[in-house]
Amino acid sequence: MVTEAEGPAGRTAIIPGCEPFSADGGDVGVLLLHGFTGNPSTMVDLGRALAAEGHTVEVPRLPGHGTSVEEMIPTRWEDWSGAAEAAYAALAARTSRVVVVGLSMGGTLTMWLASRHPEVAGAVGINPLAVRNEAVVDFVRQALDAGTDRIPSIAGDVADPDQREKAYDATPLAPLLSLQEGLAELAPELAKVTCPVLILTSPQDHTVPPTDSDALAAAVAGPVERVTLARSYHVATIDYDRDLITERTIAFVRKVTAGT
């Protein structure tokens, strides 16, 4: 069955398996945010595990994702952050405490939300993107000026040969530039993140430098826990360390929401 979603260019089919996920549960809410050119399929297993713990869970599909590169091209940081804000507000309205969890750009959005909402109970970044890359910015600007609107995919960085990320086969450049601009805007706001933070990092990440995790840990004001994902690449939520991610995230949510 084909699912339809309203996108910038009209109604566009959602790629099967990339649909958002929602589960009603108790007073603790968990919002899970996927990465750039990704979709909810990278977060849904973790979401289901959190739902099995009795939590209320939302895994939204960010604008332009999980459909087509053409639909993503007109989307920008403001679209993704706006969708994350709306999802957070809706979840917070029906639960007493919310923990936000994000992979890659989802980790960026997680910290953006935590910087704006001091009431967030905890923030989890899985191979989070945290630092603007000037070399990427220069490359993208030159490519756009030359009339190139996309490059080959940056997705699919998974060590486990039995797992494959359902992501786009190309990377749209204007959205990538907007993401870099969003990172620049977020940088001075990270000191406003006062909630507990859990950062899980793959040393063998071929998409986001592991040093981004170090920069994030140094920039936030809240207490930080670090976990090394020794066997996984960037998309660690579907990689060899996925069970470790689930275990540590569940324990973190339990700890930061104790007494809720």
Amount of beta strand: 15-25%
Number of domains as seen in the coordinates: 1
* Number of contiguous helices: 8
**Which CATH class applies here?**
Alpha Beta
Q: What gyration radius follows from the Cα positions, in whole Å? A: 17 Å
How does the major sheet shape up? 7 strands, mixed
How many strand units?
A: 11
CATH superfamily: Alpha/Beta hydrolase fold, catalytic domain
Shape: globular
Distance between the termini: 39 Å
Mean pLDDT: 94
Strand order of the largest sheet: 3-5-4-6-7-10-11
What name does CATH use for the topology? Answer: Rossmann fold
Reported CATH architecture: 3-Layer(aba) Sandwich
Order of helices and strands: EEEEHEHHEHEHEEHEHEH
Based on secondary structure, the structural category is: alpha/beta
**Portion in helices:** 25-40%
Description:
The structure is a single chain. The chain has 260 residues and is of the alpha/beta class. It has a single domain, classed as 3-Layer(aba) Sandwich (Rossmann fold), CATH 3.40.50. Helices cover 35% and strands 20% of the residues. A 7-stranded mixed sheet has the order 3-5-4-6-7-10-11, sandwiched between helices. Strands 1-2 form a two-stranded antiparallel ribbon. A two-stranded antiparallel ribbon has the order 8-9. Strand 10, helix 7 (211-219) and strand 11 (224-228) form a beta-alpha-beta unit. Helix 3 crosses helix 4 (105-116). The chain is globular, with a radius of gyration of 17 Å. Mean pLDDT is 94; it is low at 1-9.
Properties at a glance:
260 residues; globular; seven-stranded mixed beta sheet; 35% helix; alpha/beta
